[in-house]
Amino acid sequence: MKIKEKHKLRKPSGPYLVGCTHYSYEYNPDEKDDKKRVIPCICFYPAKGIGEGKLKKYVSESILPGTNGIETNSYINAPICDGKHPFLLFSHGFSLSCEANTVQFEELASHGYIVLSIGHPGDGSYELPDGEILKFDMEKMMKDYQEETTTGTEIFPKYAAWLRGDGKDASMDEHRDYYKRIIDGQPRMTAQSEIWIKDSLVALDMFLNEAKQESAMLYNHVDKENIGAFGMSFGGATALSLTHVSDLIKASANLDGFFYSSMWQKPIKKPIMVMQNDGAPAGYLLTFSFLNAENDAYMVTVKNSTHGNFMDYNEIMAENYIGKATIAGKEVEKAMLGEIDPDKMENIMNTLLLDFFNKYLKGKDSQVIDTDDLPDDVILLRK
């Protein structure tokens, strides 16, 4: 994958400068085992100055080679703006890093949100505050999930084709039965989602407790009455699950993440927005989550996009990456990014996420998602 040699991330559109700082939390997931689980986090927030003026590097070269020439807009440990700010908890996609959606973090922070991007040890690559690097083990992942990966490459294209065809007129029972077959065929992925949910709850609790301390940087700046969650891919599934398990979460957005969860059958009773790709062979996978919602729900399909378009690859890749995959027994070439213009894709994500959370966490009237003034590449359904 070829990364831009020198690049400044797009300037956020909001009125605030962006600050950032690192956190790391520990907890013991098993009382019978003394082994601690470390949750690395990066926090982005609205800043009232640049502090010492040092910008955060995009991500460590050890995590994503070729990124040394990429500069963010986030000032390390800059002073936070006065007042209380809505809070968003983010989980990245499987195998990625806390930085994987930095463009969205900076955009939201520039409009007055505090965003905590959390890591999930073993399932991504991270740089800890002391400089230690935790690397994702792709070989181990492929071994652990080999059977389910094979199942997914076979069933998801069939499911997407069904959603485009007979599924358009299917009953809710038919949708539920089809979804159940997918979930039942991938038990390890569903079980792993429980660990990500626990990580998220621990990080949320520890972050809010720390913000209560007078010595804390964010003391008295977190609006605890207005908290949301969002995530990309597997992290998007986690964000939807948090609506079920945390009373603090008021709204949730999912960036192209099939809803792996033991709670997949429970209707979501808080506002949600699900954004999905339409790329062959396996787009349109978030229909069930939308249909099963019992509160305000938005389903956004971005035309000419792929799964890879829902993270910073739009911004940092010098050219599209063409890989190979085996689907239905045939080896096919598959582009990382779809045909949609990368700049347009980032604008779509930034605009819709901001509009959604402004409505449900700030109480503002929608400027986009409740109007017909939508980008040309967007198909939006509302409930």
Describe this structure in words.
This protein has a single domain (7-382), classed as Alpha/Beta hydrolase fold, catalytic domain (Rossmann fold, 3-Layer(aba) Sandwich). The chain has nine helices and 16 strands. Helix 1 (102-110) packs across helix 9 and helix 5 (187-210) packs across helix 6 (234-245). The chain is 30% helix and 25% strand. It has 383 residues and is of the alpha/beta class. The model has no long low-confidence stretch (mean pLDDT 94). The two termini are 39 Å apart. The strands form three sheets. Strands 1, 2, 3, 4, 5, 6, 7, 10, 11, 12, 13 and 16 form a twelve-stranded mixed sheet that branches. Strands 8-9 form a two-stranded antiparallel ribbon. The protein has a two-stranded antiparallel sheet with strand order 14-15. The chain is globular. The chain has helices at 102-110, 138-144, 146-164, 172-184, 187-210, 234-245, 287-291, 313-316, 342-361, and strands at 7-8, 17-27, 37-47, 55-57, 70-76, 85-91, 114-118, 126-127, 133-134, 222-232, 249-255, 272-277, 297-302, 322-327, 330-335, 378-382.
